Amino acid sequence: MKVLLDAEKQKQTYSVELKFEGKSYFIGQEMWDKINAHAAQRGMTLDEYIAEAFTKLKEQNESRQKTDT
Fold first, then answer.
1. 26 domain residue, yes or no
2. Do 50 and 61 form a contact (C-beta atoms < 8 A)?
3. Number of independent structural domains in the chain
4. pLDDT value at position 48?
5. Across the strands, what pairs with 25?
6. What's residue 65's pLDDT?
7. Overall average pLDDT of the 56-63 stretch
8. Domain-located, residue 19
């Protein structure tokens, strides 16, 4: 009986909104799951992983601005 009940449960879906420097980034469930798995694989917390991602984004944006001028 328990197996049937578990099989009937719907997988919850969610979206996460991350805000950085005045912009919102919406992360769907599939991407969020991949972020969690990759952070765990690297031995990082989600906070560390997300901070690293936004640091890299900021550095890329600054690099592009320098080459555009």
1. yes
2. no
3. 1
4. 96
5. 18
6. 87
7. 92
8. yes
- In this structure, are residues 29 and 13 in contact, taking their beta carbons and an 8 Å threshold? yes
Q: State how far the Cα of 32 lies from the Cα of 8, in Å rounded to an integer.
A: 23
Q: Cβ contacts of residue 45 below 8 Å, gap of 6+?
A: 39
**Spatial distance between the Cα atoms of 49 and 41, rounded to a whole number of angstroms:** 11
Range of the domain at 34: 15-68
Report how far residue 6's alpha carbon sits from residue 48's, in angstroms, rounded to the nearest whole number: 34
Domain membership of residue 5 (yes or no) is no
Angle between helix 29-41 and 46-68 (nearest 10): 100
CA dist., res. 58 & res. 26, Å (int): 17
> What confidence score (pLDDT) does residue 3 get?
52
